[in-house]
Amino acid sequence: xTDQRILVALDVGTTKTCMLVGEVGERGKxxxxxxxxxxxxxxxxxxxxxxxxxxxxxxxxxxQAERTSGFEIGRTYVSVAGKHITSINxxxxxxxxxxxxxxxREDVDxxxxxxxxxxxxHNREILHVIPxxxxxxxxxxxxxxxxxxxxxxxxxxxxxxxxxxxxRNLEKAVNDAGLxxxxxxxxxxxxxxxxxxxxxxxxxxxxxxxxxxxxxxxVYIEGTVWHSAxxxxxxxxxxxxxxxxxxxxxxxxxxxxxxxxxxxxxTVAPDAIVTVQPFGEEMSTQxxxxxxxxxxxxxxxxxxxxxxxxxxxxxxxxxxxAGVVLTGGAAGLKHIRNSATRIMNLPxxxxxxxxxxxxxxxxxxxxxxTAIGLLRFAYRMDAGSAGPGGDVPHSKTPRGEGxxxxxxxxxxxxxxxxx
Length: 419
Ligand SMILES: Nc1ncnc2c1ncn2[C@@H]1O[C@H](COP(=O)(O)OP(=O)(O)OP(=O)(O)O)[C@@H](O)[C@H]1O
Ligand SMILES: [Mg+2]
Fold this sequence. Notes:
This protein is of the alpha/beta class.
């Protein structure tokens, strides 16, 4: 029996606002039924700075998505980014009554609830609680405690929190566009759904989504999220650098970056030229392609250096045999792999969403990893919320009472709790 759902995802990025209506199937296969893409307004570095302007872009994306899909859209999953995102690791313990049988989802939920009880300022909210590993009667490294006999269950969870004000502003912008928020999902967790393989997540990998205003990072080890962060530098900074140094209007700098840009000056012939249209000059002028590449390389190097610093701080930099997976619009820059490999000293691949059909031509690019991944994430939440365990959407190797739902989601390697 196949289980397919029609779901809606909204990614309000710094540069583009994108709404997708997709039919998602068991193995994460997505068929795009409709989409809306609009230039973002009222956004800065991943967060809403002008609710009315953000609403306008969302409304336009929604109308396009309704027109192309033929559905009336009333609610959507929404991705979240911004520097206000922080993550901590926390432990939760619960005692069990061995007389009653084996560990159930309710026991796991209780342990996770205990892990949620971290001291948090009143102006922050928990976005995700992700179990990393369980300990059962002192035995460490248990992936799935369901079905085990025990006296004591302990969970180590990764807790992602967000500033309430940032969430409320985004929620207001979405509500004002006539949409209810099904759930907020952290950007890099959504992107990971679109581009990471199970094998990469198992072995240890860092996903880097370089967008317009932010670079989103998530580290997966042993199948689950161990670390996540948002850095406030992205493709727009590269555009601004080009505009400043070469005295170009921002639109022209953006065009030159996307059409002629290159991250590795060493791959450019020393005399190759690019024609540009600077400010205040009637005639176009010529610049060396090598100079352009140097400007781009400097900023891209900075982005990977900041990512590397964050990974070192997290302590997981040595646990990434599967290396780096790059996505997001700016991952489309020519030879970006060279900079990532040199600075991070890890294997690097550039990824865009795969297994996407339907109206997918425009969507099959690294810029849409978050939106496509959000559809897959929504599917998992949707499937899981119908099963025993209430708001526990999925498990690594579901068994016991989760089997019916579990089959559909058994390939997914992490469990996430909604609020
Ligand atoms: N082919 C390309 N080559 C180089 N850069 C590109 C290409 N396509 C898009 N970009 C750049 O990618 C950036 C936008 O990426 P993306 O659409 O992922 O961002 P966003 O989701 O709107 O923003 P954020 O995730 O930072 O909030 C822009 O800076 C754009 O110039
Ligand atoms: Mg983005």
